[in-house]
Amino acid sequence: MIRNLLALPVIVLAVILQSAVISRLNLLSGYGDLPLVMLAAWALQDEVESAWHWAVAAGLLTGFVSGIPWIVFVAGYVAMVALAKIMRMRVWRASLLAMFSVTFLGTLLLNLFSLITLRLFGVSIPLTDALGLLTLPSVLLNLLFAIPVYAVMRDLARWMYPSMEAG
Amino acid sequence: MRNRFSRSVQTTIVFLIVGGVMALALGGYFSNASNALTDTLINVQFWFSSRFIAFQDFFTAPRDIATLRQRNAELESEVAELQAQVIQLQQQVGQTAILAALLDFAQANPANRFRAAAVIGRDPSPFLHYVIINRGSNDGILRGMPVVTDQGLVGRVDAVIADAARVQLITDPGSSVNVRLQNADEEASLVGSLTGDVTLDLIPQDTVVKTGDLVLTSGLGGGYPPDLIVGQVVNVRSRDYDLFQQATVQPVVDFNRLQIVLVIVNFRPVDISPLIPSP
């Protein structure tokens, strides 16, 4: 339980970095999603017992900062953690390839949820623009972030669960 | 005795010869010969000198390189410090220029009361064009207040907490601003997009819209105060089978470089939604 409390400062830091730095590094109209990549990397670590509460906390916090309703982020992040769990069950010792797959699918899912929600709220967004100018650049940036974030989260997981690693 | 005399004579003769030669030389009679001699001597001296310097360089160079390297490192360190100072000063100059421009703008618009705020972040989702500012309800900021810079309209406050607020930019896909074309004196609606381009919509077909026309807020709907500069028309799309014309607008504000903004705190937006008949 105490170990899980570490999720809060890590997620707060990720959301602050996302809002202050990552969102200014845009490619066309898209930019990376640090909390999403961080969650994907965390959920794929063999040592990690649960990443669900991380997903909910990250979703709530990102939703608090963003103009998009918080439920979109919670649903997107939880769905991505579920994807990571499925990947871990199917693949023995999840590799960087699994990280790329989860990041790719997670970004697509979150963008799809966002697009549907905004359309329900009456915001007109052309699908081709959303896909070509926003989603694909965001996917590319997230895949670029995936490598360093995966390494950092692996070190964090090994630091938090040393006994599991020794076993 | 004879021998001593002959020596004195010899010495005197030698002195006389030497003195005579010197006198002739000083008189310029030996100039060609002396020039040839001095040239030879200078060449010989140059040869020796250059060889000596070469040997000296060969033996002392390592020590000099070490000294030069140390000096170079010191100078590089000094240059790095000075460059850091220059960057810091440039940032301060930039901020001072922005604040001076905002102050001029505030003084030029005495009817409005402004609250300056720094932009500290952007929306985590790329679907929305919002910025986060470091002023909130503790500073008198309320939802719906217009946000401007010295150049023109930025957007309006969308959500507020105690010490921060979220501002919806006019480039946001969900943003809609009632504007008027200054030259044509016609009302229209300005909408944002996913890419950050802003478009004028609902321009009647009989209205003459030209490139370069100034776009100002109209004040209709009560969402924004009138006569805030929004941008300039850069492109007009008019098709015979459309009900309205469209025009692309270049905003006067550079939204990628927003650092400090002004919130108009004495403007209260009017909520006209109860007056709109529901279908």
Structure overview:
The complex is a heterodimer of chains A (167) and B (279). Chain A has helices at residues 7-20, 34-43, 52-65, 70-90, 96-120, 127-160, 162-166. With 167 residues, chain A is mainly α. Chain A has a single domain (3-166), classed as Arp2/3 complex 21 kDa subunit ARPC3, CATH 1.10.1760. In chain A, helix 1 packs parallel to helix 3. Helices cover 37% and strands 27% of the residues of chain B. Chain B contains two helices and twelve strands. Chain B has a six-stranded antiparallel beta barrel with strand order 1-2-5-4-3-12. In chain B, a hairpin with a 4-residue loop joins strand 3 and strand 4. The radius of gyration of chain B is 43 Å and the shape is rod-shaped. Classes of the chains: A mainly alpha (167), B alpha+beta (279). Chains A and B meet through helix 1, helix 5 and helix 6 of A and strand 1 of B.
Give the topology.
The complex is a heterodimer of chains A (167) and B (279).
Chain A (H helix, E strand, L loop, with lengths): L6 H14 L13 H10 L8 H14 L4 H21 L5 H25 L6 H34 L1 H5 L1
Chain B lengths: L1 H25 L4 H78 L5 E9 L7 E4 L12 E3 L4 E8 L4 E5 L6 E6 L4 E6 L6 E7 L9 E4 L11 E9 L6 E8 L8 E5 L15
**Architecture per CATH nomenclature, i.e. the level-2 architecture of the largest domain in chain B:** Beta Barrel
Encode the helix/strand succession of chain B as letters. Answer: HHEEEEEEEEEEEE
> Helix- and strand-based class of chain B?
alpha+beta
CATH architecture name of chain A: Orthogonal Bundle
User: Number of helix segments of chain B?
Assistant: 2
User: What is the first-to-last residue Cα distance of chain A?
Assistant: 20 Å
Greatest chain-chain contact: A-B, 34 and 21 residues
